[in-house]
Amino acid sequence: MEEQFDFDEVLKEFRSGKKLTGKGGLLSPLIKQLTEAALEAEVESHIANDVLNGNKNRRNGVNKKTIKGTSDGTFELETPRDRNGTFEPQIVKKHQTTISNEIEEKILSMYGLGMSYNDISSHIEEIYNVSISTATISTITDKIISKVKEWQSRPLDSIYPFVWLDAIHYKIKDGGKYVSKAVYTVLGVDMEGKKNILGLYLSESEGANFWLSVLTDLNNRGLKDILIASVDGLKGFPEAIKTIFPQTEVQLCIIHQIRNSIRYVASKNHKEFMSDLKPVYQAVSKEVAEQELQKLDEKWGKLYPIVIQSWQNKWENLSVYFKYPPEIRKVIYTTNIIESVHRQFRKLTKTKGAFPNENSLLKLLYMGIQNATKKWNMPMWNWNLTLSQLAIFFEGRLEDELKI
Questions:
Q1: Residue 170 — φ and ψ, nearest 5°?
Q2: Where in the sequence does UniProt note compositional bias of the Basic residues kind (predicted)?
Q3: Residues 383, 394: Cα–Cα separation, whole Å
Q4: Boundaries of every domain in the chain
Q5: SS3 sequence, 142-181?
Q6: How do residues 4-52 score in pLDDT, each as one tens digit?
Q7: How distant is the alpha carbon of residue 106 from its chain centre?
Q8: C-beta of residue 331 within 8 angstroms of C-beta of residue 320
């Protein structure tokens, strides 16, 4: 084996201006070292299996070939041989002349599963018998940032029937201290009924003004129309959406409203209050819901006026879903669909506590999105029926896309 990859020396050369990747890149020796270590493990396993099965076999030198690594970078790879000629390497096959970042992708894959740098380093050393510092792994994962930037600015479809918008908060180091910042997530369903994360945005706080800039960015990237947007109860959110997408119907999340309401109800009254509230949001029609809301006011209005007033003041946007059939109602009445994405984020970040900078957070969330979207290869349930219903409710806005 060649000498160990010297991160300190690489860091010194990187600071002096030498490239990490490409021809003569600083990471090429690491990729070569990892690849040859993996090949060594493969041939030893192959020979051990032969011996176990009663076949004589042993090492028989190496073959050398030039391998193209990342970008224009190349290096000479030594592939071990066996005496019987039966060894077929898998990580870099016999006639393969590129490795397409395979080693790096293995590191990134582990990183995308939420493994810490220390865990990744230990895992690589256990499998390949190669020592890699956490600083080196950080350098490799930083290459995700360019993909994140490209992904954040990619063109969008002109129309998404459903869009959900919500925020999740993290501690990030800023100006020498850790502050709470909001990550704004935008999830859309396209005309084929498939879910897409349209964007991630960071801000120091969750507010309607910043949401306005988010919506403007979506518009600039090609999004021209949203039929129904589901959001939480943030003040000014519906108005921000209407500023950029004036035809969009805005549904406030019923689940958020219920959670916020129960916070102001004495615990001894929780069960009874929730029993009286259920007929409001589970009503068969808006008219019935309003009758039940009036009953709720008559019984609880004097005891909990803030709660009842909140429902009344937001009723225009809380009650949007009543006009639609069940197929559409269950899609739009809550932002739970985007909260499931945030649960995926939390799985990845639960061991992190806080992040040294915004990029360290964004690259991990981006990997979380890649993992989540692997399962999003099928349209939403009963999508054709839902789409035909939308075409009736939003006459004239889907014809170009449906080609009818």
A1: -140, 155
A2: 58-67
A3: 16
A4: 7-141, 150-393
A5: CCHHHHHHHHHCCCCCCEEEEEEEEEEEEEEEECCEEEEE
A6: 555 556 556 655 655 545 555 556 676 777 778 778 888 888 898 888 8
A7: 19
A8: no
Handedness of CA 39, 13, 147, 335 (dihedral sign): positive
Residue owning tokens 């806005």 = 397
Strand partners, 202: 183
pLDDT in tens, 331-385: 999 988 998 889 888 888 887 778 888 888 998 898 888 877 878 888 888 899 9
Helix segments in 246-357, DSSP class H: 254-262, 270-281, 286-300, 305-313, 315-318, 326-332, 336-349
Task: Compute the distance between CA of residue 350 and CA of residue 109 in angstroms, rounded to an integer.
Answer: 17
Strand partners, 190: none
Crossing angle of helices 358-373/336-349, nearest 10°? 120
Two tokens, residue 263: 């916070």
> How do beta strands 59-68 and 74-82 pair?
antiparallel
- Computed from CA positions of residues 380, 338, 335, 151, in that sequence, does the dihedral angle turn out positive or negative? negative
Structure tokens at 137: 């792994």
Strands 177-189 and 195-203: antiparallel
**Model's pTM, two decimal places?**
0.71
Helix (H), strand (E) at residue 309: helix 305-313
pLDDT tens string 105-142: 677 777 777 777 888 878 777 765 556 777 777 777 77
